[in-house]
Amino acid sequence: MGLDIIEVARIESLAARSKKFLPRIFTDEEIAYCRLKKNPWPHFAVRFAAKEAVWKALGQKGLTLKDISVARDKNGRPSVLLRGKKVNDIELSLTHSRDYALAVAAGLAH
Ligand SMILES: CC(C)(COP(=O)(O)OP(=O)(O)OC[C@H]1O[C@@H](n2cnc3c(N)ncnc32)[C@H](O)[C@@H]1OP(=O)(O)O)[C@@H](O)C(=O)NCCC(=O)NCCS
């Protein structure tokens, strides 16, 4: 299991400081999804939290944050991709308010 919380303003400020921040952390698909939103920052922040939550759940130090990404089904339900491939045995739940974004990742028992 993995859990992460982040301040939305922290992600906005990291992105303002360096143009390289977003493409270093997020996939093109994640950037496109967040950019469509009126206020993209809670959506970027929650995906950052999701990457850290999944990283904690997997306990795999070989993965970078960009290797882990968030996809969505037609209802908006999030799922985990590892290097672009859907991972079926990790469930993800995300929430964001104006100031904070939080993610929980849980591995399913086989
Ligand atoms: C899903 C729902 C509970 C989100 O609650 P909320 O208080 O508005 O928003 P939260 O900050 O708690 O959560 C937002 C995150 O929930 C997740 N989410 C969205 N839809 C979801 C769903 N159907 N199931 C699980 N998670 C969902 C997403 O990761 C979203 O983050 P994102 O927009 O950055 O991708 C709310 O939109 C809802 O009740 N929807 C009903 C389902 C629905 O109508 N789906 C659309 C069908 S067309």
Task: Describe this structure as you would to a colleague.
There is one protein chain. This protein has 110 residues and is an alpha+beta fold. It has a single domain, classed as 4'-phosphopantetheinyl transferase domain (Ribosomal Protein L22, Chain A). The strands form 2 sheets. A 3-stranded antiparallel β-sheet has the order 1-6-5. Strands 2-3-4 form a 3-stranded antiparallel β-sheet, with helices on one face. It is globular, with a radius of gyration of 13 Å. The model has no long low-confidence stretch (mean pLDDT 95). Coenzyme A binds next to helix 4 and strand 5.
Layout of secondary structure:
Elements: E1 2-7, H1 8-17, H2 21-25, H3 28-35, H4 41-58, E2 68-72, E3 78-82, E4 85-87, E5 90-96, E6 100-107
Antiparallel strand pairs: 1-6, 2-3, 3-4, 5-6
CATH architecture: Alpha-Beta Complex
Bound molecules: coenzyme A
Distance between the termini: 15 Å
Question: What is the CATH C-level name?
Answer: Alpha Beta
Strand neighbour order, sheet with most strands: 1-6-5
User: Into which percent range does the helicity of residues fall?
Assistant: 25-40%
Structural key phrases:
110 residues, alpha+beta, Ribosomal Protein L22, Chain A, three-stranded antiparallel β-sheet, globular
